[in-house]
Amino acid sequence: MAEADIVVRGARIRGRPEDRKYDVYIQDGRIESIRGHPSPGHGEHEIEARGRLLMPAFFNMHFHLDSVLTMGDPRFNESGTLWEGIEIWAERKKRLTVDEMLERVTKAVKWMVAYGTLWLRTHADTTEKTLTTVRGLIEARERLKDLMWIQVTAFPQDGILTDPENAELLEKAAEMGVDNIGMIPHNEYTRFDGAKSVEVAFDIAQKYDKDIDGHVDETDDPWSRNLEVVARETIRRGYQGRVAAGHVTASHSWDPVYRDRVFKLAARARVSIVPNPLINIHLQGRFDGYPKRRGMAPIKVALSKGVNVALGHDCIMDPWYPLGVGDMLQALFMAVHVDQMMGYQELKQSLDLITINAAKIWHIEDDYGVSEGKTANLVLLKGRTEIDALRLMGPPLYVIKEGRIVADNTGGTSRVLFEGRWEELDFSQISE
Ligand SMILES: [Zn+2]
């Protein structure tokens, strides 16, 4: 008789000695036991890991599902800049409908699940005044929850104080049931408005008991200094551990003395920083000749000051970013290059940026990881070591959500279990 629903046999486990292999028994959605390999028990379903690396599944902590897979509609971004992207999106968002958005979102989520992401935070543009984005993404959160956990952040793309209606729309989104409140202080008209907008976002978050997830200082401008305001408000309002600041690319250009002070303040406030390496290296540094700034928040420095750092993918094939398949290992691969995290231990540890560090922001760190009793949310990678994970990248062989295999990339195709049936994925924006 089978002792478990699934046994992953002969796996290496991240965080345990590389010269040992384990059999992981999964039962009723949880990791029932981890035994030395070989062990005599049997599972209903057996996976032969052959020494490959088993680790907890990935997080994508910053993403824009509302614009995903709209590239080329109404036109392509020829300059490749943030500003042309915003212009194109302003046109495109007038034609959003819940149905067409759900179609794109569902496709992209399947890709990301196939690549091992089970948790995703998406922004929903609340300056799109019909709030179609919010309705559509809240619906996607429900409809796709067997595949992936999605949190929706109300995101005032064009600013909170730039239009008298925008704060109302942000609050309306909170009433509609978003998970987090966003902000974009560097996009307000003045730095004073920037600071004020942070307070408005916190007011709404506090009133509705939501976490904060902002776009903060996403510019090369060294005088963009909103992270300090975010940290101050966090401390003032007792919001420690409930705030994430996305991008913070300006911190790359800050004076080191200033950066030291503000990163320490962010650490004290337990404000997490969420760089988006693929998009940051692509969109920042656009005013520079050569030498050209890298424009990604200095992750190593932030970690060394005690700041929690996790990564986002930000975009796939939209007005801002023409590439991507939703592989968080690609985002991490870019990060370790841009920030020169190439020491052996640094490389091994860098996987924390798409796993445990993000689990802390999601408040599930106690139930996250490959150990007995925890919910089985796992990926079995192609490679055998953490270095292999970064060399070979995705997709993993298998993705397991709550003890069920939800993605199978063995056999030369990618398949995802959706609404009770296995579907073969096609990773192209356009259909056959
Ligand atoms: Zn973003």
Short characterization:
With 432 residues, the chain is an alpha/beta fold.
Commentary on this structure:
With 432 residues, this protein is an alpha/beta fold. The chain has two domains: 4-56 and 366-424, Urease, subunit C, domain 1 (Roll); 58-365, TIM Barrel, CATH 3.20.20.140. It is 31% helix and 21% strand. The chain has 13 helices and 17 strands. The chain has helices spanning 82-92, 98-114, 132-143, 166-176, 191-207, 227-236, 256-268, 277-283, 299-304, 328-338, 344-350, 356-361, 386-392, and strands spanning 4-13, 22-27, 30-36, 43-48, 53-56, 58-63, 117-125, 149-155, 180-181, 211-216, 243-247, 271-274, 378-380, 398-401, 404-408, 415-418, 421-424. Strands 1, 2, 3, 4, 5, 13, 14, 15, 16 and 17 form a ten-stranded mixed sheet that branches. Strands 6-7-8-9-10-11-12 form a seven-stranded parallel sheet. Helix 2 crosses helix 3 (132-143), helix 4 packs parallel to helix 5 (191-207) and helix 5 packs parallel to helix 6. The model has no long low-confidence stretch (mean pLDDT 97). The chain binds zinc ion. Residues 62, 64, 123, 215, 246, 314 line the site of zinc ion.
Indicate the topology.
Blueprint: E1 4-13, E2 22-27, E3 30-36, E4 43-48, E5 53-56, E6 58-63, H1 82-92, H2 98-114, E7 117-125, H3 132-143, E8 149-155, H4 166-176, E9 180-181, H5 191-207, E10 211-216, H6 227-236, E11 243-247, H7 256-268, E12 271-274, H8 277-283, H9 299-304, H10 328-338, H11 344-350, H12 356-361, E13 378-380, H13 386-392, E14 398-401, E15 404-408, E16 415-418, E17 421-424
Parallel strand pairs: 1-4, 1-5, 6-7, 7-8, 8-9, 9-10, 10-11, 11-12
Antiparallel strand pairs: 1-2, 2-3, 5-13, 13-14, 14-15, 15-16, 16-17
Helix pairs in contact: 2-3, 4-5, 5-6, 6-7
Bound molecules: zinc ion (ZN).
